[in-house]
Amino acid sequence: MAYFEHEGCNLHYEEYGHGTPLLLVHGLGSSTLDWEKQIPALATRYRVIVPDVRGHGRSDKPRERYSIAGFSADLIALIEHLNLGPAHYVGLSMGGMIGFQLGVDQPQLLKSLCIVNSAPEVKLRSRDDYWQWFKRWSLMHALSLRTIGKALGGKLFPKPEQADLRQKMAERWAKNDKHAYLASFNAIVGWGVQERLSKVTCPTLIVSADRDYTPVELKENYVKLLPDARLVVIADSRHATPLDQPDHFNQTLLKFLTAVDTTTQDH
């Protein structure tokens, strides 16, 4: 368990293994715990660094406005603090958004980018977009985090044999700081770097669950905007692919990382 400070905020991160650095960045309302099924598989080959995003997990939760650019700046500070040089980056959902932000702002810091069930923008355009956002925003204000966690668990892990995942989800969600959770949700809405995706120069893997919140088609559209990207669809999976299909996800990721490492060695 380690901490570093950036702009007056103490940020928690964990480190495992040795080798080329690999960052694993969680989604909204989550923490380092989300990668429990990846760390053992990846740490045998990589130096795995798993941070808690500002406002999450064991990191400080300052009472201020959060932004995706701010989260990205925290990670840039971590990369510099550990003197990592170019690193592999894997981001789930909000962690994917932070990865896109990092990739367009500081492409030289990334050796590769893996985006899981995410998008390069969250813009409200139609009346329905605004209505859906308002509905979620209202529920988040009205309900307890435990209730939200239980509802999310049921949605993400609906199968009878996923009871333990549902239970974990409810318990972990309940530990969130409500203010930080809402501030992070607000950071996502209206954010976007889609028009700058041509700046992401590293090899990029887009992973989409077949039953993610947003359709596979959305990912197919933005993959075309990235200079060196491909899309992999994981079947029978929902938004939390690294948890509901860990083996398939780990194999897909390792295959991609190995290919990137081999190509870089050849150059």
UniProtKB/TrEMBL annotation:
Domain AB hydrolase-1: 21-133
Organism superkingdom: Bacteria
Any Gene Ontology CC annotation: membrane
Name by which UniProt lists this protein: 3-oxoadipate enol-lactonase
GO molecular function: hydrolase activity
Gene3D superfamilies: alpha/beta hydrolase
Alphabetized UniProt keyword annotations: Hydrolase
Organism name: Pseudomonas laurylsulfativorans
